[in-house]
Amino acid sequence: MDLTLHTLPNGIRLVHLPTASAVAHCGIIINAGSRDELPEEHGVAHFIEHMLFKGTTHRKSYHILSRLEDVGGELNAYTTKEETAIHASFLKEHYPRAAELISDLLFSSTFPPAEIEKEKEVVIEEINSYLDNPAEYIFDEFEEMVFPDQPIGRSILGMPATVRTITGETIRRFIARNYSPSQMVFCSVGAISPRQIITLFEKYFSHAPAGKDSRRKRSEYLYRPVNTEKETDTWQNHCIIGNIAYDLHDRRRMGLFMLNNILGGQGMNSRLNLSLREKRGYAYNVESVYNPYTDTGLVTIYFGTDNRNLGKSIALIHKELNRLRNQSLGTLQLSRAKNQIKGYLARAYENHESLMLSLGKSLLIFDRIDTMEETFRKIDAVTAGELTETAQAIFDRTSLSTLIYRQNGKRS
C-alpha cells in the first residue's frame, strides 16, 4: 500500500491511501469510548456523538447537516466501547469542505443546553427501541453478566436514568479527560495527493493543544463463568453462549477469527447454520461473533428458537464445539477456512469507506498497518494444531457462560 503517514506536533496522526475513485472518504478516530466513562457518566460517550452535530462556534445544527449534504456528501459518526469516530464520504473535489467540517465538530462544538435537553429525549427513545429488541439487548446483558462491575461490561447507550443526568459539564469533563490529540488519527482514502492531504491536515488539525496522554489502563478482572435464565414476554427464546477470549494484541487472535468463521461466521455454510437452520429448521438466525478489545475479548454464539427446540439447539451447539476441540481440521478443511477469510478481507478492502476506518483503527491501536499480503501471510501461518489448541482453550465447556431469555408462554 502506498500510504502517506504524518504526525503533527500536537500528536494527531494522519494515514492516507490514494485511490482513483471519484468518491473520497475521511474521518477522525479517537481512542475513547464507553468503557472510558466513570460510573456516573454512563452513556456520555455515545451522547457526545449525538451532540457533535448540534452546534459549533461557527455553525448551527442545520448548517452542520447541510454542509456536506448540499454537495451530495454524507457525514456520520459512531461510538463503540473503545473508540469514537466522525467520518464523511463525498466527491473528491470537496476534501477541504469535509476536513474543515470534521475539525469544526471535533474542536469547536458548543453543546447548547437546550439541545442537550432535547437530545436526551432522542437518546432515551433510542434506548427504548433497543430494549424492545431482545435479539440485540441480550448481547449487552451478556457482556454485563460476564464483566460485572467493569466499565467494558456497561452498555454503550447508557440507560434512561443515567442519560437524564448528563449536563454540559459532564460532556466537557469526559472530553478533557479522554480526547487527547495523541490518541487521535485522521484517516483518508481518496484521489488527493500526499502534499495536498498533509496541507489540509496541518491547516485544520494543528491548532489543537497537545494535552496529556490519555491511554487507558488495562482492566484487572478475573472471569468466572455464569449461567442465567430469565423469563421474558417474547415470541422466541433467545440464547447466548460465550467466553472471554484473546485481546487485540494476542497473536492467537487470527486463529480464533478463523474458528469463529468456521463455527458461525457470515457464510451460510458455517457449521452452526448448517446444523441448526439448514438441516433441522430450529432457528432463523444463528451466529457466532468474536469481539477483541485492547485488553480482553469475547466470543459469543447467539440463536433464537421456540421452546420445543431450545434444549436440542443448545445440545447441537455443544456438539459442534466438541468437534472443534477434539477433531483437527484436515488439509482441505484448513485450506477452505483460510481462503474464506482471505476472500472476506479482500472484499472488505474494496469498500473504501470501511477501508478508511480500518486504516485509522490499525494505526491507532497497533501503531502500524499491515498490507493485505502481510495479513494473508499471517493467515497462511496458522496451523490445524493451533486451531485445536485455541478451540480447547476458548470452547472448554466448563469455562462457557450462558444467558437465556425464555419465553413465558403469554404469546404462544
Task: Give an overview of the whole structure.
The protein is of the alpha+beta class and 412 residues long. The protein is built from 15 helices and 11 strands. The protein has a 6-stranded mixed β-sheet with strand order 1-2-6-3-5-4, sandwiched between helices. The chain is globular.
Fold blueprint:
Layout: E1 4-7, E2 13-18, E3 23-30, H1 44-51, H2 61-69, E4 74-79, E5 84-91, H3 95-108, H4 113-131, H5 134-146, H6 160-163, H7 168-178, E6 184-190, H8 194-205, E7 227-232, E8 237-244, H9 253-264, H10 271-278, E9 286-292, E10 297-305, H11 307-326, H12 331-349, H13 352-366, H14 372-381, H15 384-394, E11 401-407
Parallel strand pairs: 2-6, 7-11
Antiparallel strand pairs: 1-2, 3-5, 3-6, 4-5, 8-10, 8-11, 9-10
Strand content: 15-25%
Helix content: 40-55%
| Strand tally | 11
Classify the oligomer: single chain
Rg calc: 23 Å
Number of domains: 2
Give the termini distance in whole angstroms.
Answer: 56 Å
Which strand order does the major sheet show? Answer: 1-2-6-3-5-4
The number of helical elements comes to: 15
Task: Summarize the biggest pleated sheet.
Answer: 6 strands, mixed
Element pattern in H and E? EEEHHEEHHHHHEHEEHHEEHHHHHE
What spatial form do the alpha-carbon principal axes imply? globular
CATH class of the largest domain: Alpha Beta
